[in-house]
Amino acid sequence: MDKTLNNEKEIEKIFYRGRTDRVFKSILCNEKNQRMLEWFLSLTLEKPIKIVKYLRNEQPVNTIVEKVRIVDLLVELEGEILHLELNNNLDGKRAKSIQRRNYIYVSSDYVSTVDRGEDYSKEHKMIAIDLSYGLGKSKPQKTHYYVQSAKGDKYIEDLMILVMNMDKVEEIWYNGTNEDKEKVRHLKMLNATKEELIKMSKGDEIMEEFTEQIVTLNENQHFRKLMSDEKAARMWENTERSLAREEGHEEGYKDFIKRMLSKGKTIEEISDLLDITISEIERMISK
After folding, report:
1. pTM of the entire structure?
2. Angle ∠(223,16,171) on CA atoms, nearest 5
3. For a Cys staple, 153 with which of 122, 149, 159, 248, CB 3.0–4.6 Å?
4. What is the pLDDT of residue 112?
């Protein structure tokens, strides 16, 4: 049988989960689902959350050639700004690169909350939440990061980054106590299968609404076409990257970099793909 036909049939069977970037943004980050997002954030931060307004999530650019950078979600709460980012497939150098990128985005958002000429003594509280898959089960389920000294003295009091280790959530869901499972149920729903969602959402109005929306989205043929096209593009990209590495010399990397640049990829994105520095990429393409 034709391999292409086999691949198409396999794609037809795929249930795109909540952790899929397009699904996550289409449902949880959708302004129409504000109540759902407030529920999700309240459980994650373990405090009541009320969204005042949704903010523009495009990062400012400094040059005409710089690519527009878009964060997953930026909202104003009562007395603070919240930045939410979903990260998939973090491992090794890629994890460090993505965390560095996220910190730059958060810092930019933090700076943008301070208007020129405003009193610097005023707090501009910001919370950044990273939902991260690929960190490994050995790391804690949640880690709070601050700008502070080695002794723990905070340099900035009103900036906090919360990294949720979604691999640890999976371990708790399958191996933890019932009490612990209940605490991570809203996080587990992002990586749940259709069958798991239907079972775990019974009796929970908001989670049932999430389940209904994600099932409907997966049944939408236009959405499935978009997802299958993106999957094919990623497969070609991964193939080209592997070939560049297998060649084992600079020419292989240079060819790959040129192809990616011609397709609109930024140097930062190529750096993440190849796990090499931006300066090394700039050196190779300048030759």
Report:
1. 0.74
2. 160
3. 149
4. 76
